[in-house]
Design goal:
single chain, 555 residues, mainly alpha, Growth Hormone, Chain: A, Alpha-Beta Plaits, 2 domains, 4-stranded antiparallel β-sheet
Length: 555
């Protein structure tokens, strides 16, 4: 089991400052802030360098794609690895890799021989490191603070990134103006080295997870299956893609608006990003006050509506001074929306699958950013920047309707701690079964009055979804034609080891669903549970004796 962190002292309910009372969170947060400053310095320097090296708006927009596409390709494998391997060791690898790449880009840029395509290539490599790092870094927060404090810790992680967004572009812009982008890339490499040292000194507690160990491919399938059968997560993913696809226009084309439409210099671009960062920090402060009044669904709606106005203003407003407050509001909306998405994902999953769920969320988010950047950049090249931004505003406006079929669910009251007991108890002698034996079929017989069949069917649908989510390949409910009161639930699992994992994945929250189904069972004896294992591979299945040999018969 994962070690339990102490809850905050009794008193006022947790707030934005509470996570800082945990020293390890505080140290890693500071390291993250320094690294984020370096990353935003890198972003502004890289985008501006490409803007000056090429006349193609598509190539400039591809900088966003070069950052986002690796996450689309690698975030899911990274999530599976993050749930299987020591996260501290993985962070040491990813931070070291990004340090080497950033320092290499800096040296190449300082040589004066760099081209736009070279910057894209190095950015893609940094994106690979970030894609492997992202799911692990986000889930580390759950090991640093207890669950009641987690929403505020996640918000502070967003604050770190947005303080960096306010500071990093300004510092990067100054270095670009007085020196050259190569020095920005070098400083970013140094920031990764600093983070590597903090992680190296983290003495992570040993994690003990129940159940047989998973392999990589099985872990990957389990993560996808869990998300597929979790409606709250599906809603988050749909809303995330719609939001990131439309919001990507601002990130991809802001430098083009500054340089080509408004005819301004790199300093103005850096100031725009600083206003974004300042707005995001303000949004973090507001979340502590509005969090109890606005649910996550409303926060995302407000964020989407603000981005409609942002894209309209970037397309139509001709004064940079009018755009400064627009960028401020955009930063606030961005922080509120992104924190709502991230918090919802992390609070709707148990720890055994957390990195995988976060990785799928990041994949969908980065897919929206990457595909959106290509679409809006290509549209800007074929028509003009204004048309692309107006089209993005229309997309965001239409996306508001998704709140009806895909509402964001509140995670309040969920208990993902392991269930102490599951009605499907493993049979005696199960230790003699080879974990790779299978498939396994589990059948649970209920005695339900025909008058209660409709209500039972509705409750059983939720339980069936849990069986599929936790590892079953097929699941369902049947009734006996000869005895209508007899109803059998079944689920089919690939191996005995996977069925054992189901037991360890079952949570106290799931027990409430199971209890609702068992409420319809009649009789004093509990529902009868039977396990069937593929014949004749297992020792606990009786095998027919060989036929008797008759004397003198031919062998």
């Amino acid at each position: 089991m994962t070690p339990t962190l102490p809850l905050p002292a009794a008193g006022p309910r947790p707030g934005l400052r509470t996570p800082f009372t945990y020293s390890l969170f505080r140290a890693i947060w500071i390291a993250s802030l320094v690294s984020n400053v370096g990353t935003w310095m890198q972003n502004v320097a890289g985008v501006w360098l490409v803007t000056t090296l090429t006349t193609s708006a598509l190539l400039v927009a591809l900088m966003q794609t070069a950052t986002s596409l690796p996450a689309f390709l690698l975030s899911m494998p990274a999530g599976a690895i993050g749930d299987l391997i020591d996260r501290r060791k993985l962070l040491l690898f990813t931070q070291g890799f990004m340090a080497v790449v950033a320092l290499g880009l800096g040296a190449f840029a300082l040589s004066g021989a760099i081209r736009a395509i070279d910057v894209l290539g190095f950015t893609f490599l940094l994106g690979m490191g970030a894609a492997l790092n992202g799911p692990i870094w986000q889930t580390v927060t759950t090991e640093l603070v207890p669950r009641p404090v987690l929403p505020f810790a996640i918000t502070l992680n967003g604050v770190s990134n947005n303080i960096a967004r306010a500071i990093g572009p300004a510092v990067g812009g100054i270095i670009i103006a007085y020196y050259q982008p190569g020095w920005v890339f070098v400083l970013n490499g140094v920031s990764f080295i600093g983070t590597w040292l903090v992680v190296y000194n983290w003495k992570r507690a040993v994690q003990h997870e129940g159940g047989p160990a998973e392999n990589f491919s099985g872990a990957l399938r389990a993560g996808i299956r869990y998300v597929k059968y979790s409606p709250p997560l599906v809603a988050v993913l749909v809303r995330t893609f719609a939001f990131s696809f439309g919001a990507s226009a601002m990130w991809a084309l802001l430098s083009v608006v500054v340089a080509r439409r408004l005819h301004l210099q790199s300093g103005s671009y850096a100031v725009m990003l600083s206003w974004l960062g300042a707005g995001a920090v303000t949004g973090a402060l507001l979340i502590g006050k509005i969090g109890h009044r606005f649910n996550m669904n409303r926060r995302v709606l407000v964020g989407s509506f603000v981005f409609v106005g942002t894209n309209l203003c970037l397309a139509l407003v001709n004064s940079e001074y009018w755009l400064f407050p627009v960028m401020f509001l955009t930063g606030t909306a961005w922080l509120i929306a992104m924190t709502s998405f991230s918090t919802s994902v992390q609070l709707h999953v148990p720890k055994w699958v957390q990195a995988r769920a976060v990785s799928i969320y990041m994949l969908v988010f980065q897919a929206g950013m990457s595909i959106g950047s290509i679409v809006w950049g290509e549209l800007a090249d074929r028509a003009n920047t204004e048309v692309a931004l107006l089209a993005a505003a229309g997309w965001m406006l239409a996306g508001l309707a998704l709140a009806l079929p895909f509402p964001m669910h509140q995670p309040d009251g969920l208990d993902f701690s392991p269930a102490e007991q599951w009605s499907d108890q493993l049979p005696e002698g199960e230790e003699t079964i080879d974990p790779d034996d299978g498939p396994v079929i589990v059948m649970i017989d209920y005695d339900v009055a025909p008058a209660n069949h409709a209500a039972f069917r509705l409750a059983a649908q939720h339980l069936t979804r849990l069986r599929l989510r936790d590892g079953a390949l097929r699941a369902g409910v049947f009734t006996d034609v000869a005895q209508p009161a007899r109803i059998t639930e079944f689920f089919y699992v690939a191996t005995w080891a996977e069925h054992e994992r189901q037991h360890h994945r079952f949570t106290r929250d799931d027990q409430q669903v199971e209890a609702e189904v068992r409420r319809f069972h009649q009789g004093e004896a509990p529902p009868r549970v039977t396990h069937f294992l593929s014949f004749p591979r297992t020792a606990n299945v009786e095998v027919a004796a060989p036929p008797l040999q008759v004397a003198g018969s031919v062998q």
